[in-house]
Amino acid sequence: MAPAVFKTDVAEQLGQAGSIPVRLRQRLRIDPEGNRRLVGVRQWIEMWPVVRQATGPDRTGRGDAAKSGRSQQLRPRTSEADRVVQSICPYCAVGCGQRIFVKDEKIIQIEGDPDSPISLGKLCPKGAASKQLVTRPDRVTKVRYRRPGGTEWEDLDLDRAMHMIADRVLDTRRRTWQETDAEGRLLRRTMGIAHLGGATLDNEENYLIKKLYTALGAIQVENQARL
Asked: Structurally, what CATH architecture does the domain formed by 77-135 represent?
């Protein structure tokens, strides 16, 4: 509809039909289809949320009155996902359920899983931000190693890094092994190895870690995210 249709009533009420500037008579509006078009002052004022709230059925201002041309174009980030994968939050031992939204084999959003009997769709701030854990461009994805006395980091192959760790663990255990104490009482332990777990270890990983270090004879096993 032509913009001139909407300017008459407001102009007559102001008594300045010939003096209202064009920039006030016409405003740019984004319609529900995303197209831009010019509207007159009357329709422009009717676009204001407070006017729609006062004159329409949405008196609380929490429904249609609060919508704008831009907000009507907004879509959930999850609407473009190719598939949804159910998973478990990688942080603490609560085990909250997550829904992983994937597009083109990339994670685009992570939300709470309402089907989870543990969390019922809720996530703590860390769980809600866990998408950053896997999608941040500065995330380290390679093994970094700095040699003793070195000043620079170097990338290592994962297999080589795992063998280096295993060699150091076995050597440390061998050098620090305590079979008995000074009075001959049986100890069978090492005080040269300790483990501090992080918040991204789940229940299953913590279980295996505890079994491993107990078998090695290490007694200093802790986690900074205990519940």
From this structure: Single Sheet (2.20)
